[in-house]
């Protein structure tokens, strides 16, 4: 995150990983143009765009997934979306934590069942339940697996949004 006067006045003093933004949005465009009007949040049919830090739009996959419908981009009155969302989409990857039920010996494939791109597979193994494997080439980062996991074992690892959306 850029430590600027604008960010300081908005209360954004952290230099940590920026929050996950809607697809097609660069952090610099949010900082420069977003007026926190909430139009993108109201337009999102799955409700995953929430009001985050300083009222800025953030993505939360806790209760849903991104369908890449472009509704958020079409209603935004400001030049925040540098490109329309696409299924090539988000600039993040998934991380499956140790609390995954399959990793702990309980049969579960909820994440694979929820994945619209079939990017999660379960590899059989001798003497145990199948373990999840992510095909990063197929994964769009839509978040369907995140909300479907009964133990919240799937997390998001954000990448530099400037490099990803450029």
Concise overview:
The protein has helices spanning 5-9, 27-33, 39-43, 71-75, 110-114, 144-148, 161-164, and strands spanning 49-51, 57-59, 92-96, 120-125, 128-134, 154-158. With 166 residues, it is an alpha+beta fold.
Key structural traits:
single chain; 166 residues; Alpha-Beta Plaits; two-stranded antiparallel sheet; 22% helix
**Structural class determined from secondary elements:** alpha+beta
Mean pLDDT: 82
Query: Distance between the terminal alpha carbons, to the nearest Å?
Result: 16 Å
Total strands: the figure is: 6
The CATH class label of the largest domain is Alpha Beta
Helix-strand topology string = HHHEEHEHEEHEH
Count of all domains: 2
CATH architecture of the largest domain: 2-Layer Sandwich
Give the low-pLDDT segments.
Answer: 161-166
Described by strand count, sense and barrel closure, the largest sheet is: 2 strands, antiparallel
**CATH fold-type name of the largest domain:** Alpha-Beta Plaits
Query: What is the percent of helical residues?
Result: 10-25%
């Amino acid at each position: 995150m850029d430590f600027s006067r604008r960010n300081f006045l908005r209360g954004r003093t952290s230099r940590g990983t920026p929050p996950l933004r809607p697809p097609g949005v660069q952090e610099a465009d949010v900082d420069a143009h977003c007026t926190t009007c909430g139009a993108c949040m109201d337009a999102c049919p799955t409700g995953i765009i929430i009001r985050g830090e300083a009222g800025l739009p953030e993505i939360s996959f806790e209760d849903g997934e991104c369908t890449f419908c472009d509704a958020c981009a079409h209603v935004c009155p400001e030049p925040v979306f540098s490109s329309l969302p696409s299924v090539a989409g988000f600039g993040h990857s998934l991380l499956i934590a140790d609390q995954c039920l399959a990793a702990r010996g309980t049969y579960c494939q909820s994440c694979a069942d929820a994945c619209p791109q079939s990017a999660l597979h379960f590899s059989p193994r001798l003497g145990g339940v199948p373990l999840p494997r992510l095909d990063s080439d197929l994964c769009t980062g839509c978040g369907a697996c995140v909300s479907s996991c009964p133990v919240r074992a799937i997390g998001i690892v954000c990448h530099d949004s400037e490099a990803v959306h450029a």
